């Protein structure tokens, strides 16, 4: 892989998030200093002063210059191992998400630009688009579309108190299908080079303004050291990665299977990590298998789902898909294209809420109407 590494970042609406409304005009203060200092000469990596003042764009939508970005009202959304994420409101009112990368990645300028070209050219309705990037020796910024409806993780695990609005089954299966299609597109696009996503988890499934699921952070795990990246996958890490310390498309499938089990059970994989490194991990897939083996299948499912009638067959079918994805042997796991097809075949002619289910459109549950913090 171009930059030889891996990455895992906190959910933007999770622990790393600041309170809504906390904005800081000085969030980009260090970037402004870098830009102001770029008036002459060039970096040792070949970056000229004019190069450092430019954003590189990947589409023909309305563009902006670096000064516009640096003047933007910025709200810090989260901090992770690769850097800091901001919600930036430009002067014309448009909103973007900006990742300010740490200097931890080993890429030189040419290598970094080649890698951004790989990520930036990918366009799909279920993938968060990289709109542009900025490279200087001192600063590296990635600019993405801003998605306003939070993550699957926040919808599943946020506000589990009395006032919580349940995430209904129709919405869950729609989000699962969207995420599967996005990941399948990544695997298809890079079927020869076998470039994986590298960090599949529920906090990297974001929802756009229509409630459509989009895979985020594609490829960014490859910017870090592989050992660090696989270690930070936590409960989403495939068994073989404990030894190989490598990312792969088959490991992506395993991570996606964990995500499906998380969606079905309502349980976060992190809850099943071992409290001691000397003990064997009791991960979510292992727990699900043990419950199913003891024929207590109904106990597997999120109690929020059991309030809906006539969805038992769909729940069990989705459970089978999830278990196929988390097969211990990588070679017998399905491809993501096959996973997407299996989910498409789980038909819901009538949703539990009475609306016709259509996998091609969003199914915005009441839960989404209360979610505003996102990437």
From TrEMBL:
Q: Which residues form a coiled coil?
A: none
Domain Protein kinase, first and last residues per copy: 71-348
Highest taxon above the source species: Eukaryota
Q: Where is the composition biased (Polar residues)?
A: 360-375
Residues annotated as region Disordered?
Answer: 13-47, 351-375
Keyword vocabulary terms for this entry: ATP-binding, Kinase, Nucleotide-binding, Receptor, Transferase
Q: Which Pfam families match?
A: Pkinase
| Molecular functions per Gene Ontology | ATP binding; protein kinase activity
- Please give the name of this protein: Receptor-like kinase
Organism this protein belongs to: Thalictrum thalictroides
Lineage, top ranks:
Eukaryota, Viridiplantae, Streptophyta, Embryophyta, Tracheophyta
């Amino acid at each position: 892989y171009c930059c030889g590494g891996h990455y895992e970042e906190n959910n933007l609406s999770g622990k790393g998030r600041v309170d809504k409304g906390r904005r800081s005009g000085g969030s980009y203060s260090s970037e402004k200093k870098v830009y102001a200092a770029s008036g002459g000469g060039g970096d040792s990596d070949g970056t000229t002063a004019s190069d450092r003042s430019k954003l590189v764009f990947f589409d023909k939508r309305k563009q902006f210059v670096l000064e516009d970005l640096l003047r933007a009202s910025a709200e810090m959304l989260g901090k992770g191992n690769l850097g800091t994420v901001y919600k930036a409101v430009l002067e014309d009112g448009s909103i973007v998400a900006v990742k300010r990368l740490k200097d931890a990645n080993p890429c030189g300028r040419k290598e970094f630009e080649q890698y951004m070209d790989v990520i930036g050219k990918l366009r799909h309705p279920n993938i968060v688009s990289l709109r542009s990037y900025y490279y200087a020796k001192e600063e590296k910024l990635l600019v993405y579309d801003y998605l306003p409806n939070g993550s699957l993780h926040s919808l599943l695990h946020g506000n589990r108190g009395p006032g919580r609005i349940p995430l209904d089954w129709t919405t869950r299966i729609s989000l699962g299908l969207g995420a599967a299609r996005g990941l399948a597109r990544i695997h298809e696009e890079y079927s020869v080079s076998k470039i994986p996503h590298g960090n599949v988890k529920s906090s990297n499934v974001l929802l756009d303004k229509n409630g459509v699921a989009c895979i985020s952070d594609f490829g960014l795990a490859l910017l870090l050291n592989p050992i660090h990246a696989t270690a930070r996958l936590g409960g989403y890490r495939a068994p073989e990665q404990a030894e190989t310390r490598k990312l792969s498309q088959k490991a992506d499938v395993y991570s996606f299977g964990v995500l499906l089990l998380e969606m079905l059970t309502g349980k976060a994989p992190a809850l099943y990590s071992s409290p001691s490194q000397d003990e064997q991990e009791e991960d979510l897939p292992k727990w699900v298998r043990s419950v199913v083996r003891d024929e207590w299948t109904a106990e597997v499912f999120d109690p929020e789902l059991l309030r809906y009638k006539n969805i038992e067959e769909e729940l069990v079918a989705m459970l089978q898909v999830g278990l196929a994805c988390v097969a211990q042997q990588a070679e017998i796991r399905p491809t993501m294209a096959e996973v997407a097809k299996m989910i498409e075949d789980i038909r819901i002619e009538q949703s539990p809420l009475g609306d016709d289910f259509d996998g091609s459109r969003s199914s915005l549950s009441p839960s989404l109407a209360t979610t505003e913090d996102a990437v």
